[in-house]
Amino acid sequence: MTSFGPQEEWRSAGSSALAPPVARLIEQLHKLPGIGPKTAQRLAYYLIRMPDREARELADAIGSVKESLGFCPRCQNIAAPGLCGVCSDSARDQTRLCVVQEPLDVVSLERASAFNGLYHVLHGLIDPMSNVGPDDLRIRELLRRIGDEPVQEVIIAVNPTVEGEATAMYLRQLLRPLGPRVTRLARGLPVGGDLEYADDLTLARALEGRQDF
After folding, report:
1. Taking the domains of the chain in order of start, what are their residue ranges?
2. Looking at residue 6, what is its pLDDT?
3. What are the CA-CA distances from residue 8 to residues 27, 29, 37, 98, 180 (Å)?
């Protein structure tokens, strides 16, 4: 039985009948997370049928995001040039710092409206199987903040996965000698789950029930 890799799978299903620009579009859509070959084809033909104005607006929006966005120099969240909205808000609690894996986790926690401190985005987790080590994450920037800012508590809010546990343990070893209280989210979050998909009440209770770590 012939097996196909992720790039070959969509090509195997009649791709010779596709015009080259359509085939290229399907291939690029197939690279997006969660988009299989059939979904990529449906999306491609939907885009082809879009009015020209809407298609150009979509292309412009994608180009604008790539050109105008970067990372907040303080928390490493995705932001326009300069500090992000959270870091530039003087009303936020400057003594509490919530460490998360990805920018989408900041969105989830903000939606829960249960935390009024600051954030730090690691942009990944320690994962030796994928050749991701501590130096590949924004850990140096985190340690610099602990030294420069009046941080009294660091809340480690990474996903409760094997990689998340390894990252949390590593951070605890680094942070505890520096003085701040180090806490974890309470176990209201399911093991193997992602913050992005947790409901607001679960996130709020997890924050309220955090424990020393």
Report:
1. 8-68, 78-212
2. 47
3. 9, 14, 10, 41, 50
